[in-house]
Amino acid sequence: MSEPVLAIKNLTVSFPDHLVLNDLSLQLNQGDFLSVVGQNGVGKTTLIRVILRQLAPQHGKIKYHPEFKRMKIGYVPQFRNIDEEYPLSIRDFVGLNLHDSRLPWLSKKERQKLDKIIKQTNLETIQNTPLGDASGGEKQKAYLAQALINDPDLLILDESTASLDNVRKFELLDLVKEFNEHQGVTVLFITHDIELAKDYAHEYLLMRHGNYQSGPIAQFKESDLEEAEHA
Ligand SMILES: Nc1ncnc2c1ncn2[C@@H]1O[C@H](COP(=O)(O)OP(=O)(O)OP(=O)(O)O)[C@@H](O)[C@H]1O
């Protein structure tokens, strides 16, 4: 795959009262693991909303890989508690976006797909647990499995490890790393956790109000983030 999965050029987004993204360019190639860092309010969520096609930019170009009939994006949100009364089991929740067939029930192929992702994300033993009864780490794994079930071209982790303890954070990102390294899943990881970004990402994008810096994660300097925070 020689063309990038996603190429963003000179993106500008403003809301009536202020400019949020200013001339941002970004390229993601297949198998990249990019960490997006920056203080609150610099436009990380806005960028994701543009990539998810929920928000149209005022200027700039967004190009998805030409071989994709439709860009498939998996999205794992930040942890939020789910009501104990939530009726679906972990398995049902993971399978919610399976929609290959027109049958009102899952086809054999879909059940196999579901079995496979449940196994790959280590949810086998708890798959019948109601999602509302699962721990925070298990819920995030269920979100990850749901995001991966349709073989996404791009996986977005939107502060997905925030509020998890260290063990669960590493568990979740070890799984993501597995899919990134062995299945070539391209990852965009928004985080405030610099240590985690350094441990797992290959590249970084540091967003500041109106200007951006990027490069290999090994070259990321925490002083750059501190400078951005005090700018
Ligand atoms: N729909 C909107 N209308 C007006 N302003 C908005 C809208 N969405 C976001 N903003 C503003 O744009 C700026 C960037 O918001 P955004 O949520 O993208 O930042 P962020 O980097 O994701 O922040 P955080 O790290 O706190 O999640 C903020 O000042 C926010 O108030």
UniProtKB/TrEMBL annotation:
What keywords were assigned to this record? Answer: ATP-binding, Nucleotide-binding, Transport
Where the record annotates domain ABC transporter, the positions are 6-230
- Which GO MF term does the entry hold, naming one? ATP binding
For this protein, the record's SMART domains field holds: AAA
- Similarity comment: Belongs to the ABC transporter superfamily.
Q: Can you name this protein?
A: Zinc iron ABC transporter, ATP-binding protein
Q: Which organism is it from?
A: Pediococcus cellicola
